[in-house]
Amino acid sequence: MTGAVPTVTLGDGLTVSRIGFGGMALSHVYGDSDPDQALRTLHHAVDHGTTFIDTADVYGEPREGADGPAGTNEELIAKLLASRRGEVQIATKFGIAGRIGVPGAPPTRGDRAYVRSACEASLRRLGTDVIDLYYLHRRQLDIPIEETVGAMAELVAEGKVRHLGLSEVTAAELRAAAAVHPIAAVQSEWSLWSRDVEARVVPAAREVGAGFVPYSPLGRGFLTGAMTPERIAGSMLRNEPRFVEHFAANQHVVDLVRSIGQEIGATPAQVALAWLWSQGEAFGLPVVPIPGTRSPQRVTENADALRVRLSPDQRSRLDKAAELVHGDRNLTFTSKNWISAARE
């Protein structure tokens, strides 16, 4: 069964479902995950029209004795692709050459040899001969981004990749990359409480003709009101001030989102997603958020947000949510350069 989720064209002619699915939610960083249930959730997403699936080579439970990308999230998604490859637009990423979620920012690599070997490894794990959207997850700062994107462009020319994307890049990095090869999408954290990309990166994406793919559009679950101290304690967020020390103070943001949802008969998650789409319209570029979940019911709930409409007054009130936020968006176990705002 195919759902009624509409499609949208990002940059470089890449057409995807209007909402995507963030595969990282199915991995261990948010606590133990049942792979059978994860696969059922993925099938449910595609059944109901959410066909843009996002993963990365570094997502998943690290193998014993391995320091590099885990790859287990790609292997999980390969089970979906085995029977439904033609229905799915698959995005994956490379560039983080070490483990995430542990103290100390993992190393990054963007040299030509690594670009090629990482792509070949992802193709094998995904069980496909082409990746629809291949992102540079984090750039290696001492290698010009033009060099890395040039190597990525070779993969397009060889038919191994269809479109290129960049994650957590600055406006200047994006412009430099787009001069080498068209960029279909920029991925960065963007939500009601994480809006730094609006200053420079979002306008630059519009300028170069790229779409925007916000990750953590629900504030890593916080904006839904479903996060509890107990859930946070069992995840990679357990040491994050925004979620722990400032948990009570940041409930004011949740209360605002919830109150507007009550006015229009929508859930907090749907309000947060509807606000992002309206921001895309305001900035004049396609926006495809990729919320993650382990629940089929939440997949449906998120897709139903496409029917939610916010009034100008409600948008204005939500725009003020960022003023209520305590704590930074950068995760404490990474360096300050891990997010684009630190390099602007």
From TrEMBL:
Pfam families linked to this entry: Aldo_ket_red
Top-level taxonomic group: Bacteria
Gene3D superfamilies membership: NADP-dependent oxidoreductase domain
InterPro entries: AKR, Aldo-Keto_reductase, NAD(P)_OxRdtase_dom_sf, NADP_OxRdtase_dom
SUPFAM superfamilies per the UniProt record, alphabetical: NAD(P)-linked oxidoreductase
Domain NADP-dependent oxidoreductase: 18-322
Keywords: Oxidoreductase
Protein name as it appears in the record: Aldo/keto reductase
Organism: Actinoplanes sandaracinus
Taxonomic lineage: Bacteria, Bacillati, Actinomycetota, Actinomycetes, Micromonosporales
